[in-house]
Amino acid sequence: MANLLYDALFAPLSVRDTRFLILPDGREITGRDFSTMVARFAHALVAAGVQPGDRVAAQVAKSPEALAAYAATVAAGGIFLPLNTAYTAEEIAYFLGNATPRVFLCDGKKAEGLAPVAADAGAALMVMNADGSGSFSDAAAGQPATFAPVPRGAEDLAAFLYTSGTTGRSKGAMLTHANLLSNAEVLAREWRFTEADVLLHALPIFHTHGLFVASNVVLLTGGAMIFLPGFDKDEVIRLLPRATSMMGVPTFYTRLLDDPRFTRDLVGHMRLFTSGSAPLLAETHVQFEDRTGHRILERYGMTETNMNTSNPYDGDRRAGTVGFPLPGVEVKITDPSTGEALPQGEPGMIEVRGPNVFKGYWQMPEKTKEELRDNGFFITGDIGVIDADGYVSIVGRAKDLIISGGYNVYPKEIELVLDEQPGVLESAVIGVPHPDFGEGVVGVLVAQKGATIDTAAVMAGLGGRLAKFKQPKAIEVVEELPRNTMGKVQKNLLRDRFKGLFAG
Ligand code: MLC
Ligand code: AMP
């Protein structure tokens, strides 16, 4: 038996002497060199005890080595679990405790703090620094330059990505080889990727967008990536002339539009810009076209499903819509209370089914049952509508979720920590329009009787507990939270009251 994902994405690199990764300092890594690194890493994982089905977790900076760790885990038959570099030790402890990885790769600067966390979860901690150095590459150095991939089929798991819930803790979405490969195949075809493409890759590689949508599509089609450690506007502007395509979250595009160097001339040669992970304002779409002549291609997806819909490559890319269901993906709009399909044109719950849809949440059968129907449809929590031409638009969210700069923030998780802070009786966390991040997180607090809230002390209390991007950008203290007759906090009223907080 073959290894489905490895054979399609990584095996072709072993005979490729052309560049695969282009680094910002001008260095280029050929497919063959990358493949050798993957083989050595795979041997190192096996030597560390990784067996088929074991998890390999990584909280490491974006680098060629980090991407190779993903490939090596797939080659070794393992399940790759990438983690946001912003997560605190407390957050990491949860993920490791839940996923019980065999190996945990982390940056040397964090190793001391994370060693007890890894030990508690029974994981072997190995260091991978931003420059690729550390105990992991040391362990790989003497290993053979080829590796026979462990056989893995369509239904075997290739990755866990954690996604938070409206209540409770994060859930590990289990993604199979077939989930990832089918989506990469569809996107590569729909977006016309070829080996001539050079993708400017500025997304993080610990989420679906950067790891699967961007990297897998290029890997599948034999192109190259300019691999930036993160989104740095100056670097993007410097390197765009060498690229053919770019994928981004809306914040990338609003930041570029804010810069006078981002001109029609700079990007005249580009083939494609795509956007997703958060809503692209129609005005950004229009402004982008006015400035560059390009129409951004917006698509819609999520951790559990990979990509579901996309605007057309040829044809009308409509601002404010996320386009059509991808080939092989069924999208239906249902009544959120009954699950019955609604007539075309009526807004309701977006449900999706297809080879892209995950296998469920790791060791959480009840949560899986709540969101993944027996008939295979996944209840996305997004409210959408399909127009007469078949374009899907997302018009709201049934889930209490904030999307800030493409990162998901679940209010409940922040509220639980805010409620523990001195002087705080209760809290509500909302998202309001933010010029840079799309939505900005706001903590609305009510003081305990007779207490005064020291907002600086509250913010200090969040540091070390919650990743920086989850922490409120503003704290507001109110007399009481508005509630409906059922006692539920009316967040819409709070959002309305504070909607101008970041305007400016
Ligand atoms: C960083 N900060 C954020 C933030 N990113 N705060 C809120 N929201 C964010 N997204 C914090 C920093 O810690 C810093 O804190 C301050 O805000 C300003 O930082 P910055 O230097 O301006 O941020 P930067 O490093 O430039 O990062 C912004 C960004 C990044 C937009 C480039 O967040 C990013 O790469 N986002 C992409 C997320 C993504 O890939 N999502 C895909 C999910 S997959 P301070 O106070 O220390 O200054 C998915 C499925 C799908 O959703 O459909 O794709
Ligand atoms: P995540 O759980 O990080 O994968 O985030 C998935 C969520 O991001 C979806 O459920 C949507 O709410 C949102 N999302 C992704 N793409 C888009 C888009 N193009 N427009 C609006 N929301 C989007």
Give the overall average pLDDT: 97
Poorly predicted ranges:
none
Strand content: 15-25%
Number of strands: 24
Largest sheet data = 9 strands, mixed
What general outline do the C-alpha atoms trace?
globular
Structural class: alpha/beta
Radius of gyration: 23 Å
**How many alpha or pi helices?**
16
Which compounds are bound in this model?
A: malonyl-coenzyme A, adenosine monophosphate
Helix content: 25-40%
Note down, in words, how this protein is organized:
- The longest helix is centred in the N-terminal third of the chain and has 17 residues.
- Helix 4 crosses helix 5 and helix 7 crosses helix 8.
- The chain is globular and about 65 Å long.
- The chain has 16 helices and 24 strands.
- The strands form six sheets. The chain has a nine-stranded mixed β-sheet.
- By secondary structure, it is α/β, with parallel strands linked by helices.
- Strand 23, helix 15 and strand 24 form a beta-alpha-beta unit.
- 31% of the residues lie in helices and 25% in strands.
- Adenosine monophosphate binds next to strand 13, strand 18 and strand 19.
Summarize the structure.
The protein has 504 residues and is of the alpha/beta class. The protein has helices spanning 4-10, 31-47, 64-75, 89-99, 108-121, 135-141, 177-190, 208-221, 233-239, 250-257, 264-267, 282-292, 365-371, 411-419, 455-462, 491-497; strands at 19-22, 28-30, 55-59, 79-82, 103-106, 124-127, 157-163, 171-176, 198-201, 224-227, 245-248, 272-275, 297-302, 306-310, 324-325, 330-334, 348-353, 378-386, 392-397, 402-404, 407-409, 424-434, 438-447, 474-478. Helix 2 packs across helix 3 (64-75), helix 2 (31-47) crosses helix 6 (135-141) and helix 10 crosses helix 12 (282-292).
